[in-house]
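Quick one - first record:
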Amino acid sequence: MSIQVVKHINKEQNNRTEYLFVNFDYFDGNDLVAKLFGQEYQMLSDEKIDGMYYSIIKLHKDSTEYDLIWHEDVGNYIFSLQQDETSINELEQRLEVIVSKLNEMIKA
């Protein structure tokens, strides 16, 4: 079963564009995703915030900022804090590379 991302418009969060990871519902999975963003795009990650039912890793480089979240109700997802078209398209392109790498890892 391969990992995919699905674009989702979160109407409860001002129509925020989010990308949900499918077949990748791991509590610590976002640690690996953050590491891959660091290797591929030199993004820095802040210390993970662990809550009772969620965890958040903030990724950033220059003016680009992403929130990478695991929540027990929905699993792993990511979104750009900048919700302009350019930022959303850039995140989508980056996710293609990240998901490809994750799928390579699970095949090995």
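second record:
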Amino acid sequence: MIIFAIVFLIVCVGMICFRYSKEQFEDLNIKLNEAEKHLDIYLEKKIELLNRLIKLMKKKKITAEYPDVEQYKKTELEKRNLHHVLFDTYTDMIQIVDEKEDKLTDEKSISFLDQLSDNEDDLIATVKYYNDNATEFNHLLHHFPTSITAHFLKMQQLEFYYNEKRETFEILKEK
């Protein structure tokens, strides 16, 4: 009878741990899915804003070597790659804007550049939110008792998004 009680207690504790661990993973998955939905929105908006910026600069007859942002809509890039490529494109465009700053001083241009900057800030915040939750998810994958649940549910470690701010480049330019 005592052995049966001990086995029953161990099974109950195991089930409670499994359920608790599963709930933790489900909560994190909800957060991660929500972050990815927002990333889709911000990446799509970034493509649109970069296209509009290029059109605005061409309209103002600013000569430069503009990237082909339209290609990103046509090609099916994985979200992390798209984010990385758009970050580089954004950095290149801001460099052109910085060089031709004197031609973009009207209110419409400034407002447009503010929209682009706000979108970039939102994107960086969303990537940080995703990466923070992915870090917690990956932590749970490797620690007891959640690692047992992860093993049974065949969960895989998550990759992170590239997350670097533009200010880093400005500091390097000054040196």
